[in-house]
Input
Amino acid sequence: SFRLNDELGDFRPFTWQGFKLDLRYTYIKEVKEDVHHSVLRNVERAKSEGYDFKVDTVDKESIQKNLDDFSNYGLTKWAYPKYHQLFEQLSSIEYLKSFNIYLEEQLVCSNIVLLDKNARKLSTLLVNKTSHKNATSYLYKETIDWCADNGYQFIDYCGANDESIANFKSYFNPYLSPYYLVSYAPYKNLANNVELKIKTAIKRIIG
Output
């Protein structure tokens, strides 16, 4: 499956060729816009509790942390090696960075992000999860500040379809943007074509 943004407009050629389109949503954050005051309060609490934000190169620890978090949403362990390889390759050509929150040198929260310098957009790639209260708010706010300092104007939070996650992201004052998740099942498409041909033939027989 792959993702197509709503700007494409006409998706009929995909459906004509047997692709399945599922409407989804993401949140886009304009870096210049403010965040909810409760986020700022949570950030101050995180700082007072000793949390530390760092921008790092993507390494095995940050990849493992992100994949472990994402496994709570259906990622299987057998897929880990492929993700490790992909992230390491993208990091080597400076498309990825790891935005991390530490507590006493222990990695407690992490976002691997994709950098699009041409579009001036940063995209989060996976869903992070932590039991450390306020750490995620701190991570997201520091990411916004980093973007402002480095010329990035937009953040794609890559998903607003899970209710609890969407509610959290909404506190950063993003706007909702639709996209389509496009998938193709060749055997199912073949079966549908056969069924259509049979129905057409029957209609011809019975008039």
User: Anything to note?
Assistant: Residues 186-206 form the longest helix (21 residues). Residues 77 and 117 are 32 Å apart (CA to CA). The mean pLDDT is 84. The radius of gyration is 21 Å.
